[in-house]
Design goal:
Radius of gyration: 14 Å
Strand order of the largest sheet: 2-3-4
Strand content: 15-25%
Number of strands: 5
Number of helices: 4
Number of domains: 1
């Protein structure tokens, strides 16, 4: 079974909702979305780049499984992503987590 995709609006909402992230800038060029986080670290550590692709199955642009998972791990919304997969794509691999 192929891994599911994620709506880009979900990723955008999660990035913007994180209280520890203060977004200094947002840029969109073609199918790439870039968020710049305020801080004193080098730019490559404060930049979040999300690449969308069109999937004819869904009405809005999608983010692939690997990129969505990587962003969720680094920026701290993995629980929300797993819940989103289960609720919106009816996808749960293994049973490695329990909702509380």
């Amino acid at each position: 079974m192929a891994h599911p995709t994620v709506d880009i609006s979900f990723i955008d909402k999660q990035i913007r909702a994180k209280q520890k992230l203060e977004i200094n800038g947002y840029f969109k060029a073609g199918k790439s979305h870039a968020y710049i986080v305020i801080g004193h670290k080098p730019l490559h550590k404060r930049r979040i780049v999300v690449r969308e692709f069109d999937d004819s199955k869904y009405n809005e642009p999608q983010v692939n499984f690997m990129q969505a998972t990587g962003i969720a791990i680094v920026w701290g919304f993995m629980r929300e992503l797993l819940d989103w997969y289960e609720d919106n794509r009816d996808w749960k691999e293994g049973g490695y987590f329990v909702k509380e």
